[in-house]
Design goal:
Chains A, B: This is Molybdenum cofactor synthesis domain-containing protein. The structure is a homodimer. Chain A has 9 helices and 11 strands. Chain A has helices at residues 15-19, 26-37, 51-64, 82-90, 98-110, 117-121, 154-164, 185-198, 226-248; strands spanning 7-13, 40-47, 67-71, 94-96, 124-126, 130-134, 138-144, 147-150, 175-181, 203-211, 214-223.
Amino acid sequence: MTDEVVTAAMLAIGDELLSGRTKDKNIGHLADILTAIGIDLEEVRIVPDEEDRIVEALNALRERYEYVFTSGGIGPTHDDITADAVAKAFDVPCEHDAAAMKLMGDNYAARGMEFTESRQRMARMPRGSAHIANPVSTAPGFHIGNVYVMAGVPSVFQAMLDNVIPTLRVGKKLLSRSVNCPFGEGAIAVPLRNIQAIHPDTIIGSYPKYENGKFSTELVIRAREEEKLLAAESAVKEMVADIATQSAQ
Amino acid sequence: MTDEVVTAAMLAIGDELLSGRTKDKNIGHLADILTAIGIDLEEVRIVPDEEDRIVEALNALRERYEYVFTSGGIGPTHDDITADAVAKAFDVPCEHDAAAMKLMGDNYAARGMEFTESRQRMARMPRGSAHIANPVSTAPGFHIGNVYVMAGVPSVFQAMLDNVIPTLRVGKKLLSRSVNCPFGEGAIAVPLRNIQAIHPDTIIGSYPKYENGKFSTELVIRAREEEKLLAAESAVKEMVADIATQSAQ
């Protein structure tokens, strides 16, 4: 059973996410992709651009989950400290990677631009890292151990993630079905709890929505076995129909 | 100096945030509001609807930060376990709050609806909690110690937060100025690092954007003293103008 579940965490790095200046788009994207391929995202943390905080969070997460994905802090400016922090977490030196220097040097040369010391900073990574290709802007992300370090700019994060995904071990997909329920949670809580009890190999979530002064609910059934998924879905649909009949009487 | 800074963390609770089904809107909203009133949001965690995980994260955060705000898991259904988890973290019983029972009972009576056992579940809170009023749908959030427990539905979260904000101790606001820079980070990293070194009481962040195949950068200067903010802002603007002149030559 254990092999069926592959777990992951995300560490989003950046003062701008905590100040509200930037609204994160990478967490939701990663969540969507991992769910689709059969990896369970089990925890997310957002921390500021501070080395100790990044090291602490990264060490907590990489020990606990099979994969950790980070976003942000790998550019050339003084506030980009993710590579150093990851190296510190792994207790290895952070150094200019020869292959990244070559790749980026060639790219800047081809564009007639100087490969300055700050640009070279983007070629720094923890010793022992492998590249994550960056088709958008060349400077690679990297992975070391079970940690995948990617850019914060969403288009670059997504492009890097596309290159990482095919290399990951995946578990059995958590399948899901969604049932719209026109009633608030108070009206369905008891029968829904019973359905959950009768279908223990499913996870039934109830998500209230509040629109135009009225609550409705989206009921989401999740399971790794299709048969169990469909059985619970039927029970949920029947419950919604029963309540509709009762309330029409 | 210590008194000038008031810190906070957020704990967003819910499987749906980790599966990608729901894209969180509360983190960004809380970040905006706290920044505006002078509280520094220093960490965010997202955890699933699992009691142990909520307890562990909550205890880590409430010890470290002056305030902790939670979202999600306070409805009437079986997957709403936040009140129990918070009670467990504080090692107090989770019980039906008499004032909440009265408030909600009256409200359901006025609407001609039955105050069922599941609806009564929403009146449960850790012993010793105080209410957070819910002008949208009556069932109150609560706070205990330095932890503020609010709904996950964004309109309800926001309404509850509006009631919490005036009661919080605030620090000196972190003021900010933003300078648009038409160059990528590689072009500005060295002079920007120098400006940061010369203006140590400011925090200068560099946020790359990638649009239409070209990088530009937003430079954000933050400081608690307006004078220091404006001095660093001038230096950043001058830097951008200098690079523009050089690249035009």
